[in-house]
């Protein structure tokens, strides 16, 4: 029999007679962004998005099943979603006002509270991998723009021509946003403001450790230098020894609420479950300020929540049995672990 860490933990408790905490059952939860509405997707786009979510879950699960750390599962899942044009991260990222793709990403290791983040990169194929390099191979937490790209070159990360990220669908979304803006519509009414599509993952590994990560192109029509919540530790991403969160939505509001950290703080200090803390911050707090979006939340005892206040959020999870579960719209049931 192959000795997995779970078996070893079990043996340790038998031999010492000591009360050893039950080994965690690994879980991975992902999102591909809030804000999606039924009319946004044709049947083929819906099929493509679901199959990309499943592929990302399987890839992350491979890491967890091999006994690798939660951080590996988060990175593996997000890399698949960055490479898939269905989502607003990596290839398929939204365009800035000036017609560029500017990418942001971050990740955090819950047990050590180490974190890495990048913002405003144009040539790094997988920004989440660069965020991880920042965490593991620099004394810093966050690098931006040209400096981050120089670091990517130094670390020999794959770099691409900026045109790699372009998709026609995102380009047309920018054109629509520019027309709406020219017609004087307020930001809150903009059709394009609803189209998010950021990606994120939270995982619990067999050692009971948590990690979280998020990657995005930001928001369509964002101005030069705009950075949202996704690469900001505490706003779009947070992980501790008790909680892991990745957010998606109108970033300015997530920044103002320090949303990801706020969810973890509520769980830690008020004893709330992921579902309760998610409800307070995402379903009540963000809309109370005028924002919208969603999040995925995972606790150290394997309870998950996927709160959102939009019509849909691409989301899914996979547990020890390796069967992926995915959903897109509000009315689709998704029986989450621990719910
Ligand atoms: N939160 C991201 C941002 O504001 C957008 C998203 O979630 O799609 O940059």
UniProtKB/TrEMBL annotation:
Gene3D superfamilies reported for this sequence: (Glycosyl)asparaginase (3.60.20.30)
A Pfam family it matches: Asparaginase_2
InterPro entries, alphabetized: Ntn_hydrolases_N, Peptidase_T2
Extent of the signal sequence: 1-21
Domain of life the protein comes from: Bacteria
The protein's name in its UniProt record: Isoaspartyl peptidase/L-asparaginase
Species whose genome carries this gene: Stenotrophomonas mori
Alphabetic keyword roster: Signal
The keyword Glycoprotein appears for this protein: no
């Amino acid at each position: 029999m192959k000795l997995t860490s779970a078996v070893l933990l079990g043996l340790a408790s038998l031999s010492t007679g000591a009360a050893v905490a039950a080994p965690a059952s690994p879980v991975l939860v992902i999102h591909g962004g809030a804000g999606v509405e039924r009319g946004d997707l044709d049947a083929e786009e819906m099929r493509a998005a679901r199959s990309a979510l499943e592929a990302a879950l399987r890839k992350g699960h491979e890491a967890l099943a091999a006994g690798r750390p939660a951080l590996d599962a988060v990175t593996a899942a997000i890399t698949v979603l960055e490479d898939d044009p269905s989502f607003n991260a990596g290839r398929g990222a939204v365009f800035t006002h000036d017609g560029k793709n500017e990418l942001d990403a971050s990740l955090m290791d819950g047990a050590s509270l180490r974190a890495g983040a990048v913002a405003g990169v144009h040539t790094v194929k997988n920004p989440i991998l660069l965020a991880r390099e920042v965490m593991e191979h620099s004394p810093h937490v966050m690098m931006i723009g040209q400096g981050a790209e120089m670091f990517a070159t130094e670390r020999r990360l794959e770099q691409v021509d900026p045109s790699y990220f372009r998709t026609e669908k995102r380009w047309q979304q920018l054109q629509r946003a520019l027309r709406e803006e020219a017609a004087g519509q307020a930001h809150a009414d903009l059709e394009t403001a609803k189209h998010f599509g950021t990606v994120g993952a939270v995982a619990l590994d067999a050692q009971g450790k948590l990690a979280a990560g998020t990657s995005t192109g930001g928001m369509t029509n964002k101005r030069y230098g705009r950075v949202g919540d996704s690469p900001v530790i505490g706003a779009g991403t947070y992980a501790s020894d008790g909680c892991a969160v990745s957010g998606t939505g109108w970033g300015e509001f997530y920044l103002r609420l320090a949303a990801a950290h706020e969810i973890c703080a509520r769980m830690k200090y008020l004893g709330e479950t992921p579902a309760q803390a998610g409800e307070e911050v995402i379903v009540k707090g963000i809309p109370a300020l005028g924002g919208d979006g969603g999040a995925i939340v995972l606790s150290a005892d394997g309870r998950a929540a996927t709160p959102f206040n939009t019509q849909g959020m691409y989301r899914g999870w996979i547990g020890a049995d390796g069967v992926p579960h995915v959903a897109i719209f509000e009315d689709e049931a998704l029986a989450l672990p621990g719910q």
